[in-house]
Each structure stands twice: as structure tokens, then as C-alpha cells.
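Backbones bend. To wit:
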Amino acid sequence: MFRREWHQQILVLALLGVAVTVATVGAAFAYNVAPDGRGEFGSAGHRITFSAGSQAAAAADIAAAAEYFGTIDVLLAHFAPVAGSARPLEVRAQDPHGPFSGPMLALREGRYPSAPEEVALTESAARDLHVSVGGVVDLDGRRPTLVGLVENPRRLDDDFALVAPRPPDATDLVRILVGGSQARVEQFRGTMTVDGDVRRDSPRNDKTVGAVATFGLATVGMLLVALIAAAGFVVLAQRRLRELGLLAAMGATERHVRLVTLLNGVLVGLSAAVIGTAGGLAAWALASGRVEAAAGHRIDGLSVPWWLVAISVLLAVVTATGAAWWPARAVARIPVMLALSRRPPAPKPARRPAAVAAVLIVAGLGCFALAHQKNVALIVAGTLATPIGVLLMAPLAVSAAGRMASRLPVSGRLALRDLGRYRARAGAALAAISLALGVPVAVVIVATANAHTAAEGNLSDRQLLIRVGHGQEPFAVTPGPAAALEALGAGVDQLAVSLGGATVTPLDLLVDPARIPEPQLAEAGQLQAVEVNRRRAATDDYDGLLLYVATPAVLDTFHIPPTGGGIVTAEDGDLFFLTKERFRDPEPLTDVVRIPTPGYTSVPDTFISPTVAAGMGWEPIRAGWFMEADHALTTEERAAAHDLAVDAGLTVETRDQQASLAGLRSGATAAGMLLALGVLAMTVGLIRSEAAGDLRILAAAGASSTVRRNLTAATAGSLALLGVLLGTAGAYLVLVGAYAGDLEPLTRVPFGPLAAIACGVPAIAVAAGWLLAGRQPPALARSRFD
């Protein structure tokens, strides 16, 4: 069978090889896309972080850590303002050859800094500062020379400036990477001069989560292998039904007949496993470079879990053998006379598989509900049980389609009844198509659920937030002459005109003339802004909220109704004005009006009435301008706003560039459609070749090529449509269970990709089937005898 049915074996081998290749590539992707914590911890087990209150205290704690642990790695950081940008840049002092921080640093161009007047930048920071290697950088009041480009290979979004190792300063944030147990690290923290925070590199941040995901993905991929192989083995067994009947007539037992098909499945599984694994590794080697951007870290070599590859190969052989077992068992039980006449037995009712399918679906959803998105074992069980239950509905779906055939034209009626006649084979093919579509549909849905919407982020793509001075949150403001503020306002108005008449809203903060600014919050010549303290709900933690003056322009811009209240805020929790006298037993403010959350994190959301502010003796001071255009800002317009901010000594904040998942959605849609169409094409080829005798009768009765075209098109279109419905339903069932705690992300339905799959796959299948089935195959001219 393996040698003489070579043309059919090529189809099955191709299907199995593609499935193993997809499983191998998918497993490698899932394994490598998982973060491992080395971007923050390097090769250390713990990280101790504290702010250097003084150089002497920080140096003493660092020396004590070196004596206590023996081997440590010290990283110093402070944040320097960048001209025109609302976000400071981290200046990091790090030993490029440190014992623990090696995985956190890599050189891309030039060399590492070795002198105080040298610096290295990440590519993104160098681009923002408009400097190349060999140039001079305006950074933190100094002008060091850029000697190299670096990166954190385990966190590609980590932007920083690298300087040579140096003693700590009072403004530094100190990070000490250490080894040892949790108890030992906690014991050392109790001896520190300053209060330090200890974070542990949890083993879950290693490859554990990725390994579990890859094993589940490989198992699902092998399920696809089994379903596709089952359809092929059924066809092969049907083609050799007469020969197998002759073996039984000559005295072969059921075991002998069963072993013929079973060993054929073993050979096919071994061949497909080797070919598919080799193809998967080659494809991963070509794709790994592009995956780095999505993963956010570099991938070293193939970086494939070889133990998982070995399990995938074993699963391929086992599932192919298991797929051949069921057709072998069914063929071995066919009576000898039916086998010699090549008549398949009548299909059995599909009630039992339907009942099993219902039980598996309910059990899978129950596992998701009990897992609470935490229990890995239950999540894996639910991920396997639910799609298997949906796929077991395939024979029932084929039967239902066959019962509706009476309402269709002759060609469609013959095609659907033929599918119902060979329901076991068609059900396996339908399950394979459904799984081939269900996986990319799930990827599209998850990508859409996790994508940033236009109503999320720091600002919308039409807004600008311009501030006086530096810093993202101006808790300290610099008072300026009225003429200087007027000049700044004129520049902002000019920018608004260049943006097509954007609306400009001045933003004023409040300062208390009688209050002496705290040194750690304000520099010389600055005034500390008045803030209201908030106690978060269900906690005793306080944080400060800046108070913007609720001028008529502000009320109109942020759509705040005139309430007459003292404080208007979109934040939750009780509000207080904390003082030294009232800190221990504060009373919450009662004159507070709540408004809806604006959605954008940088948009001002807490305001105070000018009348109330004047009664408290506070004075308004210009802190910035909020600008909103009537169109999405282009790259050139953002650059113009940045240049204005640099020239005028302002900072400007625009919408952050958020990672787009559109490419992932498009890629998953295209890959799913291609895979499903490939499976469908080979499946239809197997089904139509098995029905060659029926086509021969139709040709003898005078049927034209149009009838053959219509039959093939109806077969392909029916399987494609049923596959789309089952695959989409299965994907949503799995994700409803996975998101059981919060179904809101699933309300973002990806109508475009789903419509492309739901309409594109059946339409392409019908068109391809009609176009490619017109030529009369040689099998119609004569019946083949071996």
C-alpha cells in the first residue's frame, strides 16, 4: 500500500508534513515570544532597588552587599530631561562585562563608553536626539561624545543612555543584582542603611509558561495531523478494499487485515515527521529574525526546545498511527462479500459522537471557569477538551447538510448526499478544515481583544499637551514674566494655525505663595503646585492629584457641565487636603463632583473652581496648553510641534506609538485561509477520486463537464462553509472560557478579518473547484484493476 499507492501517499504526506511544519514553527514561536525576565534581572535571581539619599549611604550599602553576597552587579540610573520631550531619558551606569547584567546589554555599533565624557545610546534614543556615532550629545547639562549604539537584547523597548561605571550620587536610583535565596536577600535588606525594595525573578518569567504553551500548541497541531491523516487513510482503505477482502477470503484474520493499514500509517507518520520537522526548523530559521520585533527581545540562533521537538516527532508518529487505527479497524470488520464488491457499509447514526462532543464542550468550559485564568493544568485541559468536542460535531454537521440537500439543484444535491454517504471520511476532513481555520480565527480574535483602541493611550492622535518647563508631571512650576508667557502663548497659537486651526486651551495650575516648596519636589526658583491627596479605594495608600483651574475654556474643552462644586474629578477614592496637623486623622472632602473618566491617561481630569481657589489664597500660574486638531496629526506636524517646543523651552507630548497588531491579524487571516484551502483542495481531491465510479456513471448517462464542475464546486464550497462555521464557533467557545472573568475584550469583534475568512474561503473554494474540475480525468475512461 505504501509503495503502490504512491500518488495518494504523496497527498497524505504533504498534508501531514505541512501540519508538522506548522506545529514546529508555532511551538518555536510560542516558546521564544514568552518573556524570561532577563531584561530586568540579567542572570541574577534577585534585584535590590533603592534611591540614593546620599553618596556615602549608597556607597556603604553597595559595599555591604558586596561583602555579604560576594558577587554583585551594580546599575546606577538617573533620569535626564530631553529638550522638547515630556519623557525623560534614563542615564544608566553599567559595567558591560558585569557578572549578572550581561544579558541586559549588547553592542550594536561602535564601542562601550569608558570615560566620563563618553556615552552610548539605544538606536531609538539616538534617533530622537538626532545624533550619530562620533557626534556630540546634549544630555543632562553635559556634551559627551557618542561612541556607540547599544540595546537591551532581552527588552528591545528599553531606551536608555549608557555611561561608564562610576560612584553613586544622591540623585541615583541604585539597582543591585544578586544571587542567593529569598531568605538570604531579605536578611540583608534588614541591615541596609536605606529602605530598599526587593524583587525576585520568578521562575514563571522563565520559559515555563512558553513551554506549557508550546506543548499545548504541538498537541493541537498533532490533532490536526490525526484528523487529516484519518481522512486520507479512509480513502486509501476504501481504494484497497477489494484487496483486503481477498486477504480475508484467503484466511487472514481481522488482526492481519488491520495491521496492513496500521503499519502503513506508521510508515507515513515516520516520513511526515522527518520531513515536517526539517521543514519547520528551516522555516523558523528564516522567520526568527522577524519574530524578534513582536517578541520584544533578540532570539539567539534557533532557540528551539529540542525536547519539545522530539515530543512533536513522537506525537506525529503516534497520532498518524492512531489515525490509521480507526480506518484499519473499520475496514477489518467489513464482511468479506461487501469488501469484494467494494461497497462501504451503511453509516452509523452520529448520536454517540454528538453526546461525547457535548460532554467535552461542557467539561472544557467548566475547566476554564474553575481555572480563574491561573491554574495552568485546567487551562490546558479546557483548551484541549473544548476544540475536540467541537470537532466531534463534524459528522453531525455533515449529516445535517445531507438532509438539506433536497432543496438544492441536482449537482448540489448529489454533492451533499455523497458527503453524507461517506460521512466518516467527510467528517474527518471537515474537522481538519475547522481546526485549520479555528486556530487563526482565535489568533485574530485575541489580537483584536488586546489591541489598543483609538480611545486608549495617553492622548488621541489629534491632541497635543504642551507644558512650560520640563517633566511629565509638573508638580513644580517655574513662574515667568508676563511678557515671556505671552510670547510662548503666541508661539502656541501660531502652531495651532499651522495645524489647520486647532483649538488651544490654556492650562493653569495653582500655587500657594505662603508655602515653602519641598527641596525634593522643586528646584531653585520654582514653586510647588497645589495638589489634592487621594486615598485609593480599599487601601490606605495616598497619592497626589494636580489641581487645574476650572476656567470656562477648560470646562468647554473637557465637556464638564457647570456643577458649582469645589472640586471636579474623574478619579475614584476619597479626596483630602493633607497637612501636618491633619495627616493622622484627615477628613475627606465633601464638596466633590465626579465626572466620567476621559479615557486618555495624560488628559487633565481634576479641576477646582477659581472661586474656591481664591478663597484658599492660592494663585493660578500658567502650566501649559492643551491643543486638539480636527484631524489626525501627521509625522511632519508632530515634528514641527517638537521643534517649537525645543526653540521655546517647552515640552510637548503626543500620542505614544503603540504596538500595532494589524500585521499579526492580517498574517493570521492569510495563513489560516491558505492552510484551510490547501487542506480543502487535497481533501476534495481524495473525495472526488474515491467517487470516480459515480462520475463514470454520470458520464455514461451524458453528463457534461459543467456537471463535474458543479459537483466539485458544491463539495468544496459545502466543506469550506461548514469548516468556517465550526472553526469560528470553536474559537469563540475556547476564548469565552479563557476570558470567563472578563468578557469585555471579546466584544471587540474583528469584523473585517472574520468576514474575509467567512466569505473568502467558501468563495475561493467554489471558484477553484469549478475552474479546475472541467477536464475529464483518465479514471473515467476505464476502471483500474491491480
The longest strand covers residues 619-628. The mean pLDDT is 77. The CA atoms of residues 194 and 716 lie 72 Å apart.
